[in-house]
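The protein record filed here:
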Amino acid sequence: MQFKTFVFDAYGTLFDVHAAVRRHADTLGPDGQRLSELWRTKQLEYSWVRTMMGSYTDFWRLTEEALDFALAVMPQIDPSCRDTLLEAYWRLDCYPEVPEVLARLRDRGARTAILSNGSSDMIAAAVDSAGIGDLFDAVLSVDAVKIFKTAPEVYQMVTDTFDIQPAEVSFQSSNRWDIAGAHRFGFHTVWINRAGLPNEYLNYGPASEVSDLTAL
């Protein structure tokens, strides 16, 4: 095995960000998927804008603000679903292959970690709900540095935690922009392209592209 340290983004990589809306699809109706996509888009946009402004707000608050915006744009969806959707976001489903892949890596002697924009409480809840807490050596949240990806300070948390060089890390994310930031920092990058999206940021990785984590 070439790498001994495997680091994973959380949302979209280990956990299905659309699971909260899908769980209540019958109540939300035909516009539920559009709501979920807009919610996710604004959640990420708010993190990038806060970083550019130098004004940190934890990811849970951005998640709330993003859902409020999505509901305002889509008045055909009953706004009373807000609290239900936010509660469901604390218990997102992990992708089916995740527990087996993590267990296999650890059986091979690898160290594993999460590096996420999510707040510490959000990530702890997701990991606990999925029952995979014992499969990680470290769970790292940007709360520690109060800035979001793709700032280099975020990726440096990995090298500081494990006392290693960037080139010794295999970093996995479903977010192409995250892969670009990790590549720029010096990580070996694996893009988990679950949605089959076209490549972008062509000068910034990835080292490889796969459809799910089983390729690891």
